[in-house]
Design a protein that fits this description.
- With 819 residues, the chain is an alpha/beta fold.
- The protein is 52% helix and 11% strand.
- The protein contains 36 helices and 17 strands.
- The chain has a five-stranded mixed β-sheet, with helices on both faces. Strands 14-15-16-17 form a four-stranded mixed β-sheet, sandwiched between helices. It has a three-stranded parallel β-sheet with strand order 1-13-12.
- A hairpin with a 2-residue loop joins strand 6 and strand 7 (430-437).
- The longest helix has 36 residues, at 208-243.
């Protein structure tokens, strides 16, 4: 855990806690007034009616503002207003652009019958004068939609309703859901292969390679023209200043034309035809036209703009996939990002589905590619390949307990049913089960259809969780598996099992709110898996430095109060909060005491911290450092920036790195234990180890230390022993082993790590004990022999008088030795 933890805050007593960065300016100038629009509404229909009234007002004003203007001029100017010149510029706090606003304004324009519907000559219009108004009105509508979706969730009492509301709001408002390099890698792995090329040509008329060439051609042409205009105007000013003269009449005409195309009437400058892109890309005209038509929509012919915007605000947004608008003369224009951003797979799958034969072939390839990429990404995080990919094993039949398929089962094939796990990783004494889902969330679910969303969640998250839990239960119950061929896979060394469900689609807030998913009944009973998109897993694999960090992240996300209480819109926000040390909820001290009665009594201050932490917490934006690093890595940012790293104390980090080097016993599981300690506990480790060595140098005697960290994930204990000159290393190691075995047994610890440290402060031996706690008369006798204090003496409460900083009330106590 970090050395200093960022604290959540509340806006009002009893409200959810907030942690992270929140764009309060995004609430507008009259947030309270906007919220009052929905005050007193008692049902979803009334909420929608009130929103529709505001949509009608705002859209009418927008239509009036643009009635004499060229739609292409308006869209391009709004695009320049809302999008940063380079992605990293969006991280500046003053940037208030909104990609969704571009699409909303573009849809208002497209509801007209043509690019221009007024009689005023284009050269006499001033579209730049209305951009500020369009920004204000479109962003207000986006805010109102967020407020309406929140109110429609039913006050937070219905878990599924809240999930649907948050997911719908996320898809309406958020753009660029993936980092460009990560998205391109996944799309290329899936689509850039001969088998898929043939399917795409049959159903779309172009290949993935054609699409990439066209996309690149559009962007290069746009950038080249814009850069030339900037340079021409800038060079003219510089030349005239250097020559000490005014521009000539001819130069002034050229300057005005360039400036007009640059930022006053930019529609024609930004527009392009299929011929332009065919020349730019070198791709056959028919394929260029096929790409452009697949990613564009045309003017609709006097459609009701208010209805179009109302649909947009509930998730019906054709521009989110297509990105281009097309006029009657075959001119195209970009709206938001480049074609295919977050949408190539969706467009391709929509074209392939009607052809059942093509779809079956694609679906098989999609499953294979997704599983391979997911296992490779997990392998990079763990620095360990999967021990078993596509593991076929036997599971109990419906209603049977896991124990029927234990190692003593004589008829495993008759007793169980064959099933499969996509991937099983075995690292030290930890197993990680991975299930992969290539399914894409259906459009009705994205638009807020709760019944369909429930179906999608069950098919992706629920099935994945059930499959992973089935394997987890077998490993923990039977310490092994029966494979399909009837051979036994011995997993007796496994002490901890974690599960991951990876999806090809992007999930946003759906996968973050594990508590809501469980309360809605979609994940079943038992342990929770970590649910993540392939994109987020790939990003985490780029950032994580130590496998133990990832194990700690799995624990925090799925098996702590974080899963119950934390919510947000992006898994990577929680990951970055984890790196910063804030993804933590204090454990219930009374529950810890119940699980580990020998660990000592629960304290009032721990109960207070637990009550402060165990409340709903909304995670804001934490990804700015990650964005800056990724933009630099992708080549779109000129700024040098360090890769985000886990914030931990050097004392713990050095031990974890030492254990990981050569994969010493306990390196993975106990490494996660050490990284998960509070900063104060990590500091004490370093202090105690230095004191241990100093004592041994001073008196040439064997010394030891022990620290216990009882919690909901077990009772790890850290031991250390010295190597005085009066002892051989073997003698010192034996003393450490004996002390560890006796003390671990006495305290009921499930795992202990021992470090043997010489007088030069070097760790010369590592001892790891992870046998489950059990009755053992021999260890009881060993404890008595070496003089361990009883548990009751060790955990005896301190009387109030001993806690006072004032003088003693009684006489002096005799000094006692303490092991």
């Amino acid at each position: 855990m970090s050395k200093s933890r960022r604290q959540p805050f509340q806006l009002a007593p009893g409200s959810s806690s907030l942690i992270g960065n929140f764009d309060w300016t995004g609430l507008g100038d009259d947030a309270l007034g906007d919220m009052k629009v929905f005050a007193g509404a008692t049902n979803p229909a009334e909420l929608q009616q009130r929103q529709q009234a505001q949509v009608t007002i705002e859209v009418s004003a927008m239509l009036e503002a643009i009635q004499e203007l060229d739609a292409f001029d308006v869209i391009e100017l709004v695009r320049l207003r809302e999008l940063p010149i380079v992605p990293v510029a969006a991280l500046v706090h003053e940037h208030d652009g909104n990609g969704a606003a571009i699409e909303l304004v573009a849809l208002v324009c497209l509801a007209r019958s043509a690019r221009m519907v007024g009689r005023r000559p284009r050269s006499e219009t001033e579209p730049h004068m209305v951009i500020s108004e369009l920004h204000s009105r479109s962003t207000r509508l986006l805010r109102l939609a967020t407020f309406m979706h929140t109110a429609a969730a039913g006050g937070g009492t219905d878990a599924l309703a809240r999930l649907a509301s948050e997911y719908q709001s996320y898809l309406v408002a958020v753009r660029k859901l993936q980092y460009e390099s990560v998205q391109e890698k996944a799309d290329a792995e899936l689509f850039d292969q001969p088998q898929i090329d043939a399917l795409l040509m049959r159903c779309l008329g172009f290949t993935y390679g054609d699409f990439k060439a066209v996309r690149s051609g559009i962007q290069e042409r746009y950038s080249r023209i814009l850069t030339a205009l900037r340079d021409d105007t800038g060079n003219l000013v510089i030349r005239c200043q250097a020559e000490g003269r005014e521009p000539t009449a001819e130069e002034l005409v050229g300057f005005r034309e360039s400036m007009s195309a640059f930022m006053f009437l930019p529609g024609d400058r930004a527009a392009f035809t299929a011929t332009d892109i065919a020349q730019e890309s070198g791709i056959d005209m028919s394929r260029v036209e096929a790409v452009l038509d697949a990613f564009s929509i045309e003017f609709r012919g006097a459609t009701d703009a208010a209805s179009v915007v109302a649909d947009f605000l509930r998730g019906v947004n054709p521009l989110q996939k297509t990105c281009l608008v097309k006029d009657a003369n075959g001119n195209y224009l970009m709206t938001g990002g480049q074609i295919g951003t977050d949408s190539f797979r969706t467009i391709a799958e929509a074209a392939l589905k009607p052809d059942s034969k093509a779809w079956r072939r694609y679906d098989r390839i999609r499953a294979e590619v997704t599983e391979r990429m997911a296992l490779e990404a997990v392998g990079r995080v763990l620095k360990t390949p999967a021990a078993h990919a596509n593991l076929k094993y036997l599971a109990p039949k419906e209603g049977a307990a896991p124990g029927v398929l234990n190692g003593a089962c004589e008829t495993p094939k008759a007793t169980g049913n064959q099933t499969e796990c996509d991937g099983l990783f075995l690292i030290d004494d930890v197993a990680i089960c991975v299930e992969v889902k290539g399914r894409t969330i259906a459009e009705p679910a994205r638009r807020g259809d709760r019944a369909r969303l429930s179906t999608e969640i069950k098919a992706i998250f629920g099935d994945g969780a059930r499959q992973a839990r089935r394997l987890e239960d077998l490993i923990l119950s039977n310490h092994g598996l029966w494979r399909e061929d009837g051979t036994w896979l011995d997993l007796a060394v496994v002490r901890e099992v974690r599960s991951i469900v990876v999806g090809l689609d992007f999930f946003g807030p759906l996968a973050v709110a594990l508590g809501d998913l469980k309360r809605a009944g979609h994940l079943g009973d038992g342990s929770l898996p970590w649910i993540a998109s392939l994109h987020d897993l790939e990003v985490i694999a780029l950032v994580i430095d130590r496998p133990a960090e990832f194990l700690l992240y799995l624990r925090r996300r799925t098996d702590s109060g974080v899963a119950t209480h934390f919510r947000g819109s992006d898994e990577l926000d929680l990951f970055m909060l984890f790196l910063d040390g804030g993804l933590y909820v204090e454990e219930d001290p009374d529950e810890v005491r119940r699980l580990h009665p020998n660990a000592g009594p629960a304290r009032d201050r721990d109960r207070k911290r637990y009550l402060q932490d165990a409340r709903p917490t909304v995670v804001g934006t934490h990804t700015d450092p990650l964005d800056a690093w990724m933009y630099r890595r992708e080549g779109s940012s000129p700024y040098e920036i360090d890769k985000p790293a886990f914030n931990t104390h050097p004392a713990a980090q050095e031990i974890v790195d030492f254990l990981q080097d050569g994969r010493k016993p306990g390196w993975f599981r106990f490494g996660a234990d050490l990284l998960g300690l509070a900063g104060t506990a990590q500091t004490k480790i370093g202090d105690h180890l230095r004191h241990l060595v100093a004592q041994t140098r001073s008196d040439n005697r064997w010394h030891s230390m022990v620290q216990g960290y009882a919690g909901m994930w077990g009772y790890p204990m850290l031991f250390a022993g010295s190597v005085p000159e009066s002892h051989t290393r073997r003698e010192s190691a034996q003393k450490l082993r004996s002390y560890m075995a006796a003390k671990k047994h006495q305290m009921g610890s499930d795992r202990s790590l021992g470090l043997l440290i010489d007088n030069s402060s070097e760790i010369v031996e590592v001892v790891y004990m992870n046998a489950p706690a059990a009755n053992d008369p021999e260890l009881d006798a060993l404890g008595e022999l070496i003089g361990l204090r009883s548990v009751s003496d060790s955990n005896r409460p301190i009387p109030p008088s001993a806690r006072r900083p004032t003088r003693r009330l009684r006489g002096k106590r005799s000094r006692r030795g303490k092991r």
